[in-house]
Amino acid sequence: MQAHNRKRLASLFVLATAMLLSGMPAFAGYPERVIKIIVPFAPGGGTDAITRVLAQEMAKDLGGSIIIENKPGAGTIIGGQAVATAEGDGYTLLMGTFAHAVNPSLNAKLPFDPNKDFAPVALVARSPNIVVVNPKSSFRSVADLIAAAKAEPDKISYGTFGTGTSAHLAGEMFKHMARVNMTTVPYKGSAPAITDLIGGQIQVMFTTVASAASLIEGGQLRALAVTTAERSPAFPQLPTVAETGLPGFEAETWYGLLAPARTPPDIIDRLNRSAAKAVQADAFKKLSVNEGLVLIAAPPEEFGRYYRSEVERWRKVIQDAGIKIE
Length: 326
What we know:
By secondary structure, this protein is an alpha/beta fold. It folds into two domains: 35-126 and 252-321, 3-Layer(aba) Sandwich (D-Maltodextrin-Binding Protein, domain 2); 128-226, D-Maltodextrin-Binding Protein, domain 2. It is 44% helix and 20% strand. Strands 1, 2, 3, 4, 5, 6, 7, 8, 9 and 10 form a ten-stranded mixed beta sheet that branches. Helix 4 packs across helix 11. Residues 9-26 have low confidence and may be disordered.
């Protein structure tokens, strides 16, 4: 009789434990192993630096390890594919950027569906581009630039980091909205483009804060405006393009964590809360000054809406300009 009771109690204990565990969230014990964030660019760039600081701070909060894996190539498509096909278990993430939103419009065929194969985790930060010219230029405002471009179509040239980059598409949007013609000059990266701007071979760039801030401070470049809808905390004295001659103009770069689409919502929520805490760290705030970042760590739903709006914004620009990846 006692043996029977012991077996019955043991069975009830197992049943109760199973019921308890079935009601526990999927992230109980998460993370149990190393989390990997894939950066779809080579080491050393702005996206890489931002991701490494984010990973460092999130690891402290999560009580686990986070490593960075750089997978550059094909305009971030290689890195994106690695995450789209990964297990949706919270251990493989992507640092998405501006490029993730424009790739669907630039490429007829992608090895993944950007809308269906990813789940938004957190919009980490946003950053303006800056309209810069040679300090010897006669352009002292965006209005000056527009007037000159209208007076002499195609004479003014602007440099880009390559087809489909933020510097390129901001320039194309500018041309379309201002109804001017300027010659596009593509470069393999920001450094050679800025070198030619300083040397007078091109007249203007819509470049990133990271690539231009020190040169603006050193007097090697003159900043005319920021491209965001509101003024940048990094350059509060600079007006926006919209303020200085082109109402409604808005372009920016951004950084956001994405997970495979099958990732459980409770894990995504845990990662989002960790990212929100990470951007408040002193290390991240220091980086934000250098990169001109506006720190956000927006919730998944807000990031999803923002991402979809970016896809639509740049699809129209790309279609109107007839831009294609050859």
